[in-house]
Structure formats: structure tokens, C-alpha cells
# Entry
Amino acid sequence: MPIVNRSPMPKENKTPSLEDSLQFVKGVGPKRVLLLKKLGLETIDDALHFLPFRYEDRSQVKTISQLNVGEAVTLAGSITSAGSMRAGHRKKIFEVIVQDETGFVSAKWFQFNEKYMTGKFEVGNAIVLSGTPVNSRYSGSGIEFVHPDVETSSSDKDALEMGQILPVYRTTEGLPVKSMRAIMRQVVEHYADRVEEFLPAHILQANHFPKRSQAFRDAHLPPKGSDIKALESFQSPAQARLIYEELFLIQLGLASRKKLRSFRQTGNPLKTRGELVKDLVKQLPFELTNAQKRVLKEIMEDLEQPHPMNRLLQGDVGSGKTVVALTSLLTAVDNGMQAALMAPTELLCEQHYASLSPYCERLGISIALLTGAGKAKDRARIQENISQGNTQLIVGTHALIQKGVDFNNLGLIVVDEQHRFGVLQREAIGKKGKAPHALIMTATPIPRSLSLTLYGDLSVSYLDESPPGRQPIQTRIFYDKKRMQAYELLSKEIAKGRQAYIVCPLIEESEKMELKAATETLEFIKTTFPDLKAELIHGRMKREERQDVMARFLEGSIQILVATTVIEVGIDVPNASLMIVEHAERFGLSQLHQLRGRVGRGRHLSHCMLIAYFPLSEEGKLRLEAMKNFTDGFAIAEEDLKIRGPGDFMGTRQSGIPLLRVANLLRDFKWLTLAREEATRLIEADPQLQESKHIKLKQALQNTMGDKLDLMAII
Ligand code: ADP
Ligand code: MG
# Structure
């Protein structure tokens, strides 16, 4: 049976567009389309944004007489001889002798495929050779190249792209660098002139940026005489411009969204420092830290405004965010409105509910827990109470923002552990009730560069001080066979009255296997330390069982809690001062930091023991080292960004922010700051981008961010 292919449109009849598939490019057949797709490249526009990751300088051509040992060069000549020879017992060497007007030089390969090499190096052909010459190993005098980069051609030297700065692209198996370069050259030559300028003239001028099409051209095919150092460090005017425009559009989107919100929404100004808040402060068993006081002041100022608060609270694990949340929630209740606390896991919601309930009881306010769990009948009753306004404080999972939950008059919502939620979910919150105030809390510190792109439309508060008396957690790594040492330390500490968590291996594929591993660990503890009281907690337990285990751990009748990663976020048991993480090499850095944050919450010296097994990836090793070397969450986040690279950094993928194609948040922080300032200024001046000089900009914004950020309202 014939296979019918949907054939591409004939090339001649098509008006070329940047959204064209790469299959329209000369030299790109169906096989290459697939290979390019592997690199994330489907359209012309994708390819244009796929900048070289490095450049090869062929502009500094030297002659053979100018060669120096240890100095990288490119030289051009012709092949005078080529072939393999024996050296020593079994070793074979392939040698090519190259000649130019000034002399001869030898190039050697110690690993090679004879047939391939013989075909490649034909006597008489032109050759370009790049590398760093070394002192000759065998002849005792003179210099030679070992495994240089070479290009050969039977025609003249010019075909070998001499005298140019060549782009080098990331590529994939089956797609040689040279072919990739040829494809990209086609794309740039045929399409770069079709891109439209959208940056306002004053930005181009102020930053000495080239026009957009010129920028694509120069970044892909640097003209003769370009500054190679600038190119290599991504600081050439062309690269800078493309980096800037990408960051600028995102910042513009965020700035316009922030502006729009302040236009569209009239919120509920709240009276702050009411009775409930005052009573709460009297009841607290501790003094607020200065950081908590400062942050609360910032929040209270926002709440008094006639438009809704949108504030991000960043505070490392254990910095005391819950009491800040509670104070904010009570402010809404003080004003006769409802308040909600949303958390990402059932377990964390249950804990919040359990720890807030006693306060609510004493203060005489009603509180309810709403998650996906529990009986439908109960849920219906809870929802009924919420919509009638009988319940003042609601704790729940994202079930809270789903359809079917109608608040009576929601005044404020706090989102705990925001990193588990995406930007789009954040949008859904704003649509609940009549523009509630929103406080978004995260314990996963985000490097500043990233938080500006992820949360650029929020105001940010930092809880940068831990409650007094905390001692830094001692972190140690135990490899494989040393595992028992960690458990011995554990039994010693427990003998002193402490409690411990043992977190079991993360198994990506299956929750079931994760549970099996946890069960085995529990058995191991029970047989090894029969006197210790250990129990299991995991995500699949019934709510009552789980609450029962947590309650007994909290009161101290359980000494060891063997857990799956359900305990990752938020859990707070101050007497627990030991954490063992099994197969720590499988966890991400921010996850390890979260897990470690379960201890070190009281006055006791706490220990975190990371048990790692071989084989260990290079990244895995770096992560463990980072955990040992850093305790501060921000430092850890920076390390994470370095190890993983920004594209892959937690949250960015599902955050709703377009992935960066050109910019790199670590490298281009300077541009990010400038882009942000400019975007804010521009939106202040022309909030809806209505001025005629901003038409193109508005279109570009819509193209890149429109679907992502709900900008349609202004565009
Ligand atoms: P996180 O920021 O990780 O959510 P929590 O709010 O759970 O931290 O607080 C961690 C622990 O510190 C809790 O046991 C809490 O009661 C305690 N805590 C919070 N604020 C203070 C304070 N100002 N002084 C002493 N202990 C505090
Ligand atoms: Mg918390």
C-alpha cells in the first residue's frame, strides 16, 4: 500500500514567512527536519534565534614559518603526503604533511579510521588546519599538530571559509557541525531581512544596538573584523541586542500586567492592626523577629491600598512565614471578610489546619479544611459553609481555586510554597471573589535574576532572618558502604531524646515503588534498632491515618518517621533534629534543601545525613557538595542555577513564562535589569501601548507573550 505523505508546499509558490517550517530550507529533507526538531528547531524563527554558542576564528591565518608551540592558529596549505605508519609495537599513526609558501608541518592522529582518513586527505588538495602546535614527539625537533581540526577541499582555499569567523552551533548526532552551519547560513541569508524591527528607536540609540535583521546576520555570520572576544562572551552589539529584546518583551509583559491590574481592579482597602491581630500577637509564644515585623509592615501598607496586594514573600525554610501568613489572614477576618490559605499538599494543609485551629478557637473564629480528600458529602457541606460566609478562615489545596468553590467575600488569599504552583494558577486566584489581596510565599529561594522574570509583576518582601537560637545544620555525606555510620549516629541522637526523619528514595516512575522502598526501610529500622519506635508516612495513606501518625510524631511518641517525599514541604516538628535522606543523589538541589529544612527548627543542633550510592553522575556529585558547603537557601539556588543551567531551572518550564532562547539569566543579568527599568518606564508612559510608535512592539509582545500571560485584554 502506498504511504501518502503530506508533502510540503512547492518552494516557489510560497511567500516565505518566519513561521515556515525548516523543511522549506534548501538542504533540509525529512530526515534533517527530525534532527532539527531534536534541537528544538521547527520554524525559521526558531532557527534565527538559535545563536552560535561559540565562534571559530579563522581570520587570524598564519603561515607555517610563524607557528609557535602552544599558540592556537589556523593555517592554510596543501597536502603533500598522507598515510599511516607504525610507531612502536602496535600503535599506528596517521600523518599528513602540509605545505605552504613558507614551509612544511606535520599533523598527526593516534586514533583514526584508516579508510575514512585516506579518503579525506588526498595529496594535492587544499587544507585548512586549526589547532595548537606542540613539540614533535618523535622527530625530536620541530613542531607538529596532534588531532587538529581540519577541513579539506579539492577546489581552492576560499571554499574553506578562510579568513572568516565561523559560527559553531550546538548540534545533535547525525547532523555534523558543517551541515548545521550550512543550514543556518541558508536561513540567515534568506530570512534575516524579513524580520521586522520592533524596538523603539530611542532604545536602539541609547544602547548602540544594530537593527534587528542586522543583529541576526551579525550574530550568525560575524563580518570580517568582528571582535572575537566580544562574540565569545556574548557581548557583541548584535548578540546584546537580541538578548535585550528577549528580556525586554518579558519585562514589558509583566509590567503591563501589573499596570493593568491596578487599573482594572478596585480592591478592598483593609483596616489593619485590628482586634484579632492584636490578640494573636499576645498569644504567640515568641517575640516576632525584626524581619517578620518589617515584612508585616510592608504587607499591612499594601492591604490598606484601594487596589489588591500582590506580594511575594521569600523566606528560607524555617524563617517563620506561617505567623506572617496568619497575621495577614486575620487582618481580613478583622474586616469582616473571609481569608484563605492555600498549600500544595494535603499533608501540609492538614498541618496548617492543625496548627492554626487552636489560635482560631481561642480567638473565636471559624476555620475549615478543604482538600480533594474526604467524603464528597463533607466537602459539599464545607463548600456550602464557605459560600454562605459561615466559615471565616479556609485552609486548602488548589481545590480552593477550582470551580465549584464560591467564597462569600474573600478578602485575602495566602499561597504557601508558591514554587509548587505556576504563574497561571496564580492568575486563577485573582479571579476568585472580588479581587482579593494575595500574598504568595515561597521557601525555595530563587536567584534574583530568575525571580525578576518569574515574578516580575509582584512586589517582593524578604524574610531574611531566622528566629533566634537556631544553629546551623550539620550536613554530611555518606557513600554507599558507609551508610551504617549514618544510622549509628541516628540511634545515638535518638537516645538523647531527639526525633528523626528518614526520607526514602525518590522513584520518578512510580509512587508504588517509592512506597515499597519506604516499607523496606521501615523493616530495616525495626530489625536493626528494635527498641526504637518507627512508623511510616506516605501520600497514599488515608487522611485519618496520616493525621494520627503526624500527631504522634509531634507529641514525641514516634521517634523515627520513615517518609516518602510527602514531607518535603512545610512540615514543622521542632524536636526533630535528624534527617537521613536515602539515595540523596536522586534528588534535586532545591528538594534536598527543602528536606533538610525539616530539621534545624528548634534549639537543638541538627544533622542532615545524605546517603548516596554509586554510580554517581557528575551533577549528582556537585549537588551533594553544594548541600555540604552551603546552608543559605539563596546560595543553594545560585548553585542550582549554575549546575542545571537556567533553561532547566525549577519552575521555569511550567511557569508560563516563555523559555529563553537567546538570553541567559546568569550571564545577562545586566541586560535584565536595564530591560526591566525601560519596560516599566515605557508602560508608565503608554500603559496600553497605543501610541503609533509602539505598534510593532505591541504586536511582538502579543506574538511572544499573548497566550501566556492573558494580555489579550489590553492588546
Ligand atoms: P517556614 O518559613 O518554613 O514556613 P515556619 O513558619 O513553619 O517556617 O516556622 C518555623 C518554626 O519557627 C515554627 O516552629 C515556628 O513556630 C517558629 N517561629 C516562627 N517565628 C518565630 C519567632 N519569631 N521566634 C521563635 N520561633 C519562631
Ligand atoms: Mg512553611
Notes: The pocket of magnesium ion (ligand 2) is lined by residues 321-322, 416, 570 (CB under 6 Å).
